[in-house]
Amino acid sequence: MARQLLLALALLAAIHCACAAKSVLVLLQSGTTADKYSGFIDGLGAAGFAVEVKGHKDTGLKLREYGTWLYDDLVLFAPKAEGFGGSIDQQTILDFVDSGHNVLLAVNSEVSEAMRNLAAEFGVDLDDRGTKLFDHFSYATTADGKHDHNLVASYDLADAPVIVGGPYKDPVLFRGLAATVPADAELATVVLSAPATSYSHDPRKSMLEPPSLMVGAAASLVTAVQARNNARMVVAGSTDMFSNDLAGSANRAFCLTLALWAFQERGVLVASNLRHHLLGSDEQPAGYRVNDEVEFAVDVMEVTGGVAKPYKVDDLQVEFVMLNPYIRLPLQHDGQGVFSLRFMVPDVYGVFKYVVDYSRRGYSYIKLTHQVPVRPFKHNEYERFLVCAYPYYASALSVMLAFFSLSFFFLYHK
């Protein structure tokens, strides 16, 4: 009987895992181009995703049905698309992101205005249609041995291993369209920059003067964006970098790692079990008294590929806030994912909040708040004798002694 119960539980666990597989919709310029990206798509399948590949003009396309999203993630490899089939449009994709889902967008030099507008919604300004990235120093050769100055070889990866993986011995190869990202963009990270010797230009036009914007490291080749709701978007200026033709370099590993990050299989932080209590007690009180000694704790785990492990950093802070932070201190971790801090409640009463606001490049944001009131001492909680008040006690006693001495002397002596 016990064995049957164990088998039933194992079956239920297997069914749960199968049902929990994330679904990815891949929209291509044409359904016949699926073989071009078969290595990348197979890599997603090997990572545990349920991948569905369709052409962007398929009449049965839909992301949502009866208010329920049908997919967890969306891949757009249709750079020339001016629209989509079925019920998908730009607003639907933006709603998809607003609901916490993820998008991987790749374009090329033939990018349509619709795709440029979608990338702009993600905070990435793609260069004009027809322009290409050139580099006469950092370039690669094609399979037939020809020098291709449009096939740019870049080692300029962001210092964010959780997004880009690596380190890689070979460069990442890029053939396509450059982009710019505002310097003050808080949510965007340029994960692959152009080499210093590269520039963007439309080869059909004459170059009367050197380009001023899309030059060198100012040109973004791949940009990662994480919205405030932790939805993730990746905008790549090259569809070829995901293709089988360039899989022999570092592209295969880089593109797959980038996709895993975009689909929240890497760099996901889960904070839970926020708690606080007075020292010497395990119960969480409804409020504090000024100058109480308390302990605050929260559990933070890093989830990679569905596996949770303790998060270990020294820059996670907690604030004790009433309008302004009265206390801001780093949390100490025990190596098991528990971050805690002991401190004394400030000598100010009012309504305070615990605030944990953590953002680190490549990792999902943590935003936790918990409200707790702080009251003053009650009338019967004050100490009756204070060490700091001894001079006042002595002055009162001296006045009393002087009064009795003067009275005794006045009454009993002439």
TrEMBL record:
It comes from the Eukaryota. Pathway: Protein modification; protein glycosylation. It is a single-pass type I membrane protein. It holds the Pfam family OST48_N. Keywords: Endoplasmic reticulum, Membrane, Signal, Transferase, Transmembrane, Transmembrane helix. The chain crosses the membrane at residues 390-412. GO terms for molecular function: transferase activity. Residues 24-261 form the OST48 N-terminal domain. Component of the oligosaccharyltransferase (OST) complex. This is Dolichyl-diphosphooligosaccharide--protein glycosyltransferase 48 kDa subunit. It comes from Tetrabaena socialis.
